[in-house]
Design a protein that fits this description.
heterodimer, A: about 775 residues, alpha+beta, six-stranded antiparallel β-barrel, about 55% helix, globular, B: about 950 residues, seven-stranded mixed sheet, six-stranded antiparallel sheet, 28 helices, 35 strands
Chain lengths: ~775, ~950
């Protein structure tokens, strides 16, 4: 009875509000409403606390959006007789409708994001058995070694934890490749990794054929293992020590639970963060998804599998025949299948893994294309609105995750729409100035406020627009190809851990130059027309301002595709650990302040070794371990000279020399034992950026970044005369793998050779 | 008061003819001549009280006598005035001056009768007439004649046009009167050789055509017998001094065909032009008469200067020229009753001294029917014996016994049952309409024969004009082509194009900005228009929206939507004007020759459409505007609304009948008022009260929210005065001057323009024309600043990009200022209440006040009161001029007849009254309207709803999904 009453109350409140808001009131009333709404929302933002305040804020904002939408739909379309204007106007309207739709869905999804408390520590006997799957395709060994070491070091009863390296790069199919070089590489890879796993206590598993990509690989793992819970880590996603303790308990508390998902956190910048140099100060793009949207979804039992950093129940997987592999986003597809058969999911909003993300723009686009295509595939092939067994909001939640990927269309529409008026005088929006102020400007203000309120700490202003734009240009193509043939796209493994040796333009940069040029031309044209063409009205000012805003996005995007070289190849994690460094038989206690796969930073605590002993000297670092460390080995390091940091303390760089597989356990402890390191890191970036300062930064980029991009282009043009094609990555990998094979065979690697190779792979 | 209209027709005729000739003389005299007064003062008698002796004037019976009368006048004048060509009119005045005691009133009386009959004196020397053609630098067929799409262009070159084009004042005298007699002897001789002007009925635009292009359309009902060969149409007109004759044209269209065109060369005095109407063009029934004026400025090519341009049609000199019998002989022809020379329809109610209330009721009903029948916009009812003249009608209703002795020669002895008699005008008497019978029932039966048929007769254009007159009725949710509203397709080569039309909305239209009226413009504009070219649409003289014409390459469009805020419309009559501002850079040089042969700049097609969205239908009371323009609520009640006349004098009854008739005209249907002389009970339905102030009970004053004492104190000086203020006898010269001033100021002729100190003659030179901003005046402050800006712009425009930047900067500043002002106004609207000044002053001639007692819709009272009965009758006559009538609004309207202006006290508390069956659609629109008018409440409610929804959401979310741990 009560639920019905609640629903009825809510529905009737909504209905009355809708009736009221679709009253065609005067422009003055609308302006009053818009201004009052802004004032009221600001007041709530400043003084309101609690859920009622939050819902009031969102309700008022939504009302203004509805008012805008109503006006937009009823009175701003060009007349049908103006065919071109009407067609383009309708298109623009559809684009806006899409944005509003996304806003509405996200409001529903984020109505009340979940906050979960940490689980109490369960007794070891009660814990389920766990199989950790590390699917790999072409990742380098050191990445795999780190991940395996971190996985093996997780705080969990050792007898209940099995780590599986699921290698798709060394399948029989690959080993018998028609290309002899490739076949050789595959065979070498299989041998190397088998040895690696043997030494580290993990299980190596490969299969006959590379069928169904990642899903097939995981299913192969399912067949070979028997743990109650399956954990999936991407090869470059190393878990923190507390990973299982924080998550696995949920399975015992909910027998229908199929999934515990945790956020993906990256230690390296994506190309945009890297090229705009925002990694250390701006929240990552995916934080909005993980720390807001997934929590929102969690409320509705709708959080879904993201491919990695997640635990799944074997029985649940078995009930639907394992991981689904129809589309190229097997994760979401699997979750959809399981949700629709009545299983539940949980999202634990605690960063428990540290991963790598694509570093070049090309691989970034490749990854996003896969996501977009896969989500679109699901929408076509397994439409959540048709899928039985889902409840309404789950459908909506899945729909939101899928329709989100249509953003390229509206984004490009918004980018190009003003040009139609600037160049061709096509009016696509009928309004007078009063109405534009009363409706549009208040709508824009309210929209910004809504977004900033919902996502403020995890998203700077305008960054969404930038990401949409830089992806949009290519994703548009990807989406079209899916629409043409939904089953065609194939799984492309995202390349990660690639290095960038020099400043250059991304291969995909040219469309951005073209678009930016077009927008600049539009801006010039608008200016010229405004000043020199009689009769051009203030409308040109408005359109020109819009175009200028677009120019800022496009200019910043140019910066995003102008790839900076990356001097520090390994992402560092700030830690706070103790240890001691042994140089030439002398032991110096050190404070370890940061660590990466390639080295760490230390401060000598009591005494500093003499200067001549520091530079390029070999030493051994032993650490005070946090967990039950598997090995007692020390880390071989090479000392680099010290630098004075901000706090006037000399920090010394230690470069890890060649690590043998077991030494990776030490590294894993150093990096991944302190589970608070990651939240600390994220929190350091999550400062609220106001609309004003965000806009200022954005304008700065929009103006300066195109010049940097142009400089790169000039340089590249010069270089291209010499035309040196840099090739090598596969060869390099092969060579390195051979070495590893050697290492594995001999047990302890020959120092010099191994060092040379290690440096090649790690410190380039 | 007795009938003040004396008859001295012959003198009148002579006077008229002389004046006409004088006008010609003046027009013919060179431009160096100083302005003099050339036109016969029109219908002054309605404003001038007559000496009782004038009531029974001796009527000269023979043509000889009439012809003889003026001669001494002229003779006596000649020596006095030294400039022969200009002497005649002045001479008359002087003559009057010479015999002030005897002649002046008589002449005034004559004027009262008016130059309906225009006949030339043989002594008018034709050679004195100006020869317009030589004066004009352009040939007869102007190269830039505006093309009109309504009719075949061939009509221009046709028979009528060939005569009319280029012909000006010479022809009115030459043509119609060829072979005419020395003077028409008297009205009674109409059947023989009399020539009559069927004047145009007054309308809400007045008789002014202003701007570079202006047009007005009138329906005119012509009877079968009036359709004859050789019909002519005469137009008398006066124009602004700035009008350049060589490039300015007056065009007459009948039934959308161009009948003729003449140069406008009438800055110095009224000129007349007569146009031959091709035979067969006019058909029995309603016909459309459209007069268009296209002007160019003599020296100034700026947009601002175009506002100085106007042509005033002199209604006294304008009309369909009927020669031969045109008398109305049947009830069906009543729509052809001739209005007077100012376009008003005088109805003389012939009522026995002792009569029944029922009979007066019947009279009031009949006056309403008559006005609706002929679509007269300004009906003036008075009570008295059979009136003379040719204009208007005598209306006699009653049993044979009652009417006995009232009807003069009309013999009712044969009447046995219900009988309607239409006695054609003859013997100096107006057309007389008699409803009679042996018994009261017979009379009622007779009256029933007078019913307005919805079927209109006439040419399609005439029917259209009649239907769109005064405005086209719209009810919401429809699209209408402007063609149906009387607008024709036009090309335009000037700077400021203007076209207007009227629509009439239902009285229960709830006006607020809850929707938009879409004006779908069809037309185009030429390449090379200057900066800021735009179309501005104004509703009821307020600019509401503009559309820029941005393309330097020009453009044509079939549908260019311009949204107008619905709230700018109001119930009843609305005038919408489309104005295109089309300045070109070449205008700065301002070559007059270029103005003559200017290229077309703008095109308006009559396929332009106006779309009225669905409108909310609910009435609000009190609101005089709604009452004035829709007769609401009187026309909407089921019961008969009481018409309370506490002091039923003749004047009061006349005023009451005039008001009742006017409400019926506004409503478009008769209102069954029930006359009463005792105060109606509060719940007897909406009541109309017409009485002089002293006769109004205190309670009645209270019921309309007025203080009796305040009103009486205000009028203490005039309460007992028998003569209305400003009604002192005018000298002839002053009468002439007044007429000219009325024309120049476009003053509602029925109102009493007060005589300024020193007389009208001097007033003309000194008057600032407060009413009329479009008139020519000295360079005022605004003018100076405009000149400065122009010069400033001209000088700076040589400065290249910096100047442009400066202009842009200035525009940006202006734009910013506008926004600031808008916001400021908006804020102050929210915060402040406006301070109102008292509007009841000694200049007040009439008060119209309306209110509800305790908010009960049935208790609505509208009080119309004036200091005394005579002033009441006089002021009501002024009030019913359509242009004055339209100004009524609010809770109290105070008429200042001296200015023809109304000041209003707005409604503080208004009550909504349902007029339609409840429907969701209508309720929604009403709510939208109400909320639009109360934005603060709207916002408050929205915020409350948001809170409710938030709370509901909060509660709802607790029950669904997972809860935060």
């Amino acid at each position: 009875m009560l639920p019905v009453l609640r629903t009825l109350t809510w529905l009737s409140a909504g209905l009355v509000a809708m009736l009221f808001l679709t009253q065609p009131v005067s422009t003055v009333a609308q302006l009053t409403l818009g201004c009052s709404a802004i004032v009221a929302m600001s007041a709530i933002w400043k003084f309101g606390r609690g859920k009622l305040a939050r819902h009031s804020f969102l309700a008022i904002g939504t009302f203004v959006v509805i008012r805008y939408l109503y006006w937009r739909l009823t009175s701003t379309l060009p007349p049908v007789s103006d065919t071109l204007g009407f067609a383009l106007g309708t298109f623009l309207l559809c684009a806006e409708m899409y944005c509003v739709l996304i806003l509405v869905i996200s409001l529903v999804v984020n109505a009340d994001p979940m906050k979960r408390k940490s689980l109490p520590r369960d007794d070891d006997e009660l814990l389920p058995t766990v199989d950790v799957f590390i699917p790999s395709y072409n990742e380098d060994d050191y990445i795999l070694a780190t991940t395996i070491a971190a996985a093996m070091s997780m705080d969990y009863p050792k007898d209940k934890l099995k780590v599986w390296l699921l290698d798709d790069g060394g399948t029989d199919q690959k080993c018998n490749d028609s290309n002899p070089a490739k076949a050789e590489a595959a065979r070498a890879r299989r041998a190397d990794l088998q040895a690696l796993c043997d030494q580290m206590g993990a299980h190596y598993l490969t299969r006959a054929r590379n069928e169904h990509a990642k899903a097939g690989n995981l299913n192969n793992g399912l067949k070979a293992s028997r743990g109650e819970i399956v954990v999936v880590f991407d090869a470059d996603h190393a878990p923190f020590r507390a990973f299982l303790r924080e998550t696995v308990g949920h399975f015992a508390r909910d027998p229908k639970l199929f999934l515990v998902q945790t956020p993906h956190v990256f230690l390296n910048p994506d190309p945009i963060e890297k090229n705009l140099q925002t990694f250390n100060r701006m929240p990552s793009e995916n934080e909005m998804f993980y720390s807001v949207t997934q929590r929102g979804l969690d409320k509705w039992n709708g959080s879904f599998f993201c491919g990695s950093a997640a635990l799944l129940r074997r029985t649940a997987l078995d009930s639907v025949g394992g991981f689904s592999g129809v589309t190229i986003t097997e994760d979401c597809e699997t979750a959809l299948d399981l949700h629709s058969s009545g299983w539940t999911s949980v999202f634990v909003d605690k960063p428990l893994i540290a991963g790598l993300q694509p570093e070049t723009f090309v691989s970034f686009i490749g990854q996003r294309s896969r996501w977009a295509q896969g989500m679109f595939q699901i929408l076509i092939l397994k439409n959540p609105t048709m899928k039985k067994g889902l409840h309404m909001i789950q459908r909506l939640a899945y729909l939101s995750s899928m329709t989100f990927w249509f953003f390229p269309l509206p984004r490009l529409t918004f980018m190009l729409a003003p040009l139609s008026y600037i160049f061709f005088d096509v009016k696509i929006f009928v309004s007078n100035l009063d109405e534009a102020i009363a409706y549009t400007s208040t709508y824009i203000a309210i929209n910004l406020m809504l977004q900033n309120y919902l996502y403020g700490s995890v998203r700077w202003p305008w960054i969404s627009e930038l990401y949409e734009y830089v992806q949009g240009v290519f994703l548009f193509k990807a989406l079209v190809s899916v629409a043409m043939s939904p089953r065609k796209p194939t799984f492309n493994v995202t390349a990660k851990g690639l290095s960038l040796d020099n400043d250059h333009l991304s291969e995909l940069a040219w469309p951005f130059f073209a678009l930016h040029g077009l927008l600049v031309a539009g801006g010039l044209m608008a200016t010229w027309r405004y000043f020199f063409e009689p009769g051009v009205s203030d409308l040109m000012l408005v359109v020109g301002a819009w175009n200028t805003f677009n120019m800022m996005i496009a200019g910043t995007a140019l910066g995003a595709v102008a790839e900076r070289k990356q001097p520090d190849r390994h992402p560092r994690l700030i830690v706070d650990r103790e240890g001691s460094l042994n140089i030439l038989g002398q032991s110096y206690p050190v404070h370890i302040i940061n660590v990466s796969a390639g080295g760490c930073g230390v401060i000598f605590k009591d005494r500093t070794p003499p200067e001549h002993e520091v530079e390029n000297n070999i030493g051994h670092l032993s650490i005070v371990s946090m967990g039950t460390i598997i090995t007692d080995e020390t880390l071989p390091v090479m000392l680099k000279h010290g630098t004075l940091n901000k706090d006037k303390v000399v920090t010394y760089g230690l470069e890890f020399a060649d690590l043998n597989p077991r030494e990776y356990f030490v590294l894993a402890d150093l990096m991944y034992a302190d589970s608070d390191a990651l939240p600390r890191f994220l929190a350091s970036r999550r400062t609220h950026k106001s609309i004003l300062s965000g806009s200022y930064e954005f304008i700065y980029w929009g103006i300066t970044e195109p010049f940097r991009a142009l400089a790169y282009m000039r340089k590249q043009f010069k270089d291209s005369k010499e035309a040196v094609a840099v090739e090598a990555t596969p060869e390099m990998s092969v060579e390195m793998l051979k070495k590893l094979v050697e290492m594995a065979k001999t047990g302890t690697p020959p120092a010099d050779a191994a060092k040379a190779k290690s440096i090649e792979t790690k410190a380039a | 008061m007795q009938d003040r209209r004396p008859i001295s027709v012959a003198a009148l005729q002579l006077l008229a003819s002389q004046l006409l000739a004088a006008a010609l003389c003046v027009a013919g005299s060179s431009a160096s001549a100083q302005p003099i007064f050339t036109t016969a003062p029109p219908s002054l008698q309605r404003l001038l009280p007559m000496a009782p002796s004038a009531l029974e004037p001796a009527q000269p019976d023979t043509p000889k006598a009439t012809a003889a009368a003026p001669v001494p006048l002229r003779d006596s004048l000649t020596p006095e005035v030294r400039q022969p060509p200009r002497q005649i009119p002045i001479g008359i005045a002087a003559g009057a001056g010479q015999a002030p005691a005897a002649q002046a009133p008589a002449i005034n009386d004559v004027q009262a009768q008016l130059p309906i009959i225009v006949s030339p004196s043989p002594s008018q020397p034709l050679q004195l007439q100006p020869a317009p053609q030589p004066q004009q630098p352009i040939p007869q067929q102007p190269a830039i004649a505006p093309r009109t799409y309504g009719g075949p262009p061939a009509a221009v070159a046709g028979q009528g046009a060939s005569q009319a084009t280029g012909q000006t004042t010479s022809q009115p005298t030459a043509n119609p009167f060829i072979g005419g007699r020395t003077t028409a002897s008297r009205i009674g001789s109409l059947k023989e050789n009399g020539i009559v002007l069927r004047h145009l009925t007054n309308n809400v635009q007045g008789f002014r055509l202003s701007g570079e292009v202006g047009a007005s359309e009138w329906p005119i009902y012509v009877t079968d017998t009036q359709i004859q060969r050789g019909l002519k149409f005469q137009v008398g007109f006066l124009s602004a001094i700035s009008v350049m004759p060589e490039a300015s044209y007056l065009t007459l269209m009948i039934n959308d065909q161009v009948v003729g065109r003449t140069n406008i060369n009438a800055a110095r005095g009224v000129r007349t032009a007569t146009f031959d109407i091709p035979d067969g063009l006019m058909k029995p029934g309603f016909n459309s008469v459209r007069i268009m004026a296209e002007h160019r400025h003599r020296v100034d090519c700026s947009l601002q200067a175009t506002y100085e341009l106007w042509t005033q049609i002199d209604p006294t000199q304008t009309g369909l020229v009927l020669s031969g019998p045109g008398a109305i002989t049947s009830v069906a022809e009543l729509a052809a009753l001739p209005v007077d020379e100012q376009g008003a329809m005088p109805i003389r109610a012939v009522i026995a001294a002792k009569t029944s209330m029922a009979n007066i009721d019947r009279v009031i009903r009949a006056t309403q029917m008559l006005s609706l029948f002929g679509r007269f916009q300004q009906t003036v009812v008075d009570v008295g014996p059979m009136a003379d003249g040719v204009h208007g009608v005598n209306l006699a209703i009653g049993t044979v016994a009652e009417l006995d002795g009232l009807l003069g020669t009309i013999n009712l002895n044969q009447v046995t049952g219900p009988k309607v008699l239409v006695v054609p005008a003859s013997g100096g008497k107006r057309t007389t309409l008699v409803f009679t019978g042996r018994t009261e029932d017979d009379v009622n039966d007779a009256l029933r024969q007078l019913s307005v048929s919805s079927e209109l007769r006439g040419t399609p254009q005439g029917i259209r004009a009649a239907q769109a007159f005064p405005g086209y009725h719209m009810f919401g949710g429809e699209r209408v082509k402007l063609r149906d509203l009387g607008v024709v397709s036009q090309e335009f080569s000037g700077r400021l194009f203007r076209v207007g039309f009227n629509i009439v909305l239902p009285p229960d239209f709830y006006s607020a900005d809850y929707a938009k009226v879409i004006l779908d413009l069809a037309g185009g504009y030429a390449p090379g228009l200057g900066y800021g070219a735009q179309v501005v649409v104004s509703v009821n003289t307020r600019n509401v929206v503009s559309l820029s014409l941005p393309k330097s390459s020009g453009d044509v469009f079939k549908q260019n939507p311009i949204p107008l805020p619905l709230g700018s419309l109001r119930p009843g009559l609305n005038r919408i004007e489309i104005e295109a501002q089309l300045a070109m850079p070449s205008d700065i040089a301002c070559d007059p020759i270029a103005a003559i042969s200017g290229k077309n700049r703008f095109l308006l097609l009559d396929t332009t459409e106006i779309e009225l969205p669905k409108i909310a239908r609910i009435a609000h009371m009190p609101d005089l505007a709604v009452t004035a323009t829709g007769g609401f609520p009187y026309a909407a009640t089921q019961a008969r609304p009481p018409l309370y006349v506490p002091a039923p004098s003749k004047e009061a009854i006349g005023a009451a009948a005039t008001m009742a008739t006017h409400f019926a005209i506004s409503a478009g249907r008769p209102i069954p008022f029930a006359l009463t002389i005792s105060e109606p009970p509060a719940d007897s339905g909406p009541a109309l009260i017409v009485a002089p102030a002293q006769a109004v009970p205190n309670d009645t004053f209270k019921s309309v929210g007025l203080q009796q004492q305040t009103v009486l104190d205000n009028w203490s000086q005039s309460l007992s005065a028998e003569v209305a203020p400003g009604s002192e006898t005018l000298s002839r010269t002053d009468a002439l001057a007044r007429h000219r001033l009325v024309l120049q100021r476009n003053f509602p002729a029925a109102c009493h323009m007060p005589t300024p100190q020193g007389g009208f003659r001097y007033a003309e030179h000194t008057s600032k024309y407060r009413n009329d901003q479009t008139s020519v005046g000295a360079i005022g402050d605004s003018e100076q600043s405009r000149l400065f800006e122009e010069w400033d712009a001209n000088i700076r425009s040589q400065g290249g990009i910096f100047a442009r930047l400066k202009i842009k900067y200035d525009r940006a500043v202006t734009w910013g200022k506008d926004i600031y002002n808008d916001l400021h106004n908006w804020v102050s609207d929210q915060l402040e209440t406006q301070i109102r000044r008292p509007i009841l002053t000694r200049q007040a001639s009439l008060i119209v006040a309306q209110d509800l007692v305790n908010g009960a819709p049935d208790s609505l009272r509208t009080l119309i009161t004036a200091p005394n009965a005579a002033a009441l009758a006089q002021s009501v006559n002024c009030l019913v001029d359509p242009r004055v009538w339209q100004q009524m609004a609010g809770r109290v309207s105070v008429l200042n007849a001296g200015e023809g202006a109304i000041a209003n006290i707005p409604v503080e508390t208004s009550y909504l009254v349902a007029t339609q069956p409840l429907s969701i659609d209508n309720m929604r629109l009403i709510a939208a309207g109400w909320l639009s008018l109360n934005p603060n409440i709207y916002v408050f409610m929205v915020l409350i709803l948001a809170l409710l929804l938030a709370a509901a959401t909060n509660w709802f979310l607790k029950g669904v999904g997972r809860s935060t741990e």
